[in-house]
Amino acid sequence: AYGEPNYRVFGNLTIKGITHGIAFDAVVDLAEEWMEATAGFSFDRSLYEVRFGSGSFFEDLGDNLILDEIFLEVHIVASL
Questions:
Q1: Of the four listed, 33, 37, 63, 79, which is most buried by Cβ atoms within 10 Å?
Q2: What is the DSSP string of 25-36?
Q3: What confidence score (pLDDT) does residue 56 get?
Q4: pTM of the model
Q5: Span 57-77, mean pLDDT?
């Protein structure tokens, strides 16, 4: 599926047993026998208590700081 996003996806993202609502745009292509969807979105890992190297939880990390924003790209192909 390529092109401009044509669907808004709403759902829940659960990491380490912590759930938050999430919404993002996706490109979805539907046919009689299959569906293909592609999306890319970011989320803040600190909301899910993922602390390793996070400036949200630790001070003075200097060059060891890891950004809290994670980008995830999803590509799904499914038979209907």
A1: 37
A2: EEEEEE-SSEEE
A3: 63
A4: 0.72
A5: 77
